[in-house]
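Translate sequence into structure tokens.
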Amino acid sequence: MTSDVKRLARLAKVQAQMKQMKEMRLGEQLAALRRVEDDIDEISRLGDSGSPVAMLFPALCARRLAALEAERKAIEAQAAATLGETHVENKRLQRIEDRLVRADGARERKALEHETLERLARDG
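Result follows.
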């Protein structure tokens, strides 16, 4: 294996790890978003059902809902940014893998040409 092929293989491995990290971060953000949305739904249901807690502390419920909505918007923005980063990492990985395939193909062609020339020199 030539040094270019080795270097590209190592780079592809690192890039795949970067992509996995971004995907993991996105998954964590989406899970956090689901938790916040579940909390919003639960507090909203308490208010809609005439819960004694919601009736005794309407201002507290309203503040908590407002805080959860703000948190939801922040997480959505983070997840959107991470999704974009994930796409970038995926494109980078694809480009590196394409370069690796081309470099490995060039190495194989060169080795085949070398074998052919040696065979011709022996036979010729």
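Note: The chain is about 95% helix and 0% strand.
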